[in-house]
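FIELD: query
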Amino acid sequence: MSDTDLETTVFVFVHGAWHSSWQWGATQRALAALGAASVAVDLPGHGFDAPVPTGYALPGQPALTTEKSQLASLTMEECADSVLTTLRSVRRFRTVVLVAHSAGGGPASLAAERAPELVDRIVYLSAFVPAGRPRGSDYVAAPENAAALGRGLPLGDPDALGAIRINPLSPDPEYIEELRQTHYQDTPADRFGRWRLALSTDLPLAIMESPVELTAGRWGRIPRVFLRCADDRALPLATQDLMITEADRAVPGNPFTVRTLPGSHTPFAARPRELAAALAASVRPAEGR
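FIELD: result
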């Protein structure tokens, strides 16, 4: 793809758990410098208007581990709808590239399955791919994911809360260090401090637990790229490779193009310019892993 081609391309970004459209800002600026347009989606229940537990910012954070999430009734279909709304708004571009990170892979995949004519390419940035197993939680529970960090981050009972809840404002330095080591280990300390304060508390349970059924004739016909994160501690390489393998087995006639980035689960925080370059390269012909 030439620079001229990039000028007719738009990247549609779907964030992962506890993040929102803001996470992509530096990457979008780097893409703009390369000539590409982009737009970032806020999934329902995310962004700066995301609801948080009533005691979250109060002294002692009362009921943080027990108060039911305001997002408990949110569905996977509603999340996919928000992606589809944005995809429809940018279809005037010649090439539409849907980019999903982490837990955003479920809603992005469902949106592509429902309207494959709106997507010219999908890029999974260390994102869940529900082609081999329909739920993100199926891969979290896989033996290949045993090395993943962050198991001490969720609070309370997710089934009772209706959400996977974390505490970015935790006063416990060990908790905050686990959050850093899981998602941001290669992000400068001062930048991590700002990033974690912008995280929301609740990932709607539906995003990880609702099954997404993908078909070869719809989702499977879209060219797709997987950007592996080499030192990912939230979703280890073994889990990323398992999803790639199972997706390729489900749609053998249209396998992933696979490329590898250095670093953590959050390259948009640690090295956004490199991520932008990889995204630009991802829409060029494949050269393999």
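FIELD: remark
Strands lie at 9-14, 37-41, 95-101, 121-125, 163-165, 202-204, 224-229, 257-261.
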